[in-house]
Design a protein that fits this description.
The protein is of the alpha/beta class and 184 residues long. The protein has three helices and six strands, in the order H-E-E-H-E-E-E-E-H. It starts with a helix and ends in a 12-residue tail after the last helix.
Length: 184
């Protein structure tokens, strides 16, 4: 049942999710990339033990990636004609948030003194990560990778799930093709 909940919740990243992380091959000429296709059998389940995603979520991710790449001027074509291949992965990790509170006190009704009480609470939460890869088809080399992680949100409507996926994918692909970045 837990895996079913994880699969249902995957990629519903909270609005406060972290900024995407990008990496790319600086020697790649991204201006040559005009067409794309999907890696055969691209799957969110790759390298994730006991993890399954629904076909509905897989379609949302693919549709969002297709739309964003087409907005940037690229065209979806058959595998043999593509300049780049798109692949994607998702993972779900459980994290623990620990809070410790120290409360000091002084006088009590029957005596004076100093002391403190410590209370620690721990909460588990799930973090989902979506990774998008762009592979040069001719060389079969990874040329760009973008990833974003965030707390998973459960119990969302299909419309909200689609909206969150679109926003997440747009955020990840906001630096594809890569822009010059000054790093001081």
């Amino acid at each position: 049942m837990k895996n079913l909940l994880i699969a249902t919740a995957v990629l519903f990243l909270a609005a406060c999710a972290k900024t995407p992380d990008w990496d790319y091959d600086k020697s790649a000429d991204f201006s040559n990339y005009k067409t794309f296709s999907w890696v055969p059998n691209a799957s969110l389940t790759k390298n994730v033990a006991n993890y399954q995603i629904s076909p509905l979520m897989e379609k949302r991710v693919r549709d969002a990636v297709n739309a964003e790449l087409e907005k940037s001027g690229m065209k979806l074509v058959d595998l043999a004609q593509a300049d780049v291949l798109i692949n994607y992965h998702a993972s779900v990790d459980t994290k623990i948030d620990v809070d410790t509170f120290n409360v000091g006190y002084g006088a009590r009704w029957n005596y004076w003194g100093m002391g403190y009480n410590t209370q620690t609470t721990a909460r588990e939460y799930e973090v989902g990560t979506l990774i998008l890869d762009v592979v040069d088809r001719a060389s079969n080399q990874l040329v760009w990778r973008g990833a974003k992680e965030g707390r998973l949100q459960k119990n969302q409507s299909p419309e909200k799930r689609t909206e969150v996926i679109k926003e997440t994918v747009a955020n990840i692909l906001s630096n594809f093709p890569p822009q010059s970045i000054n790093q001081d």
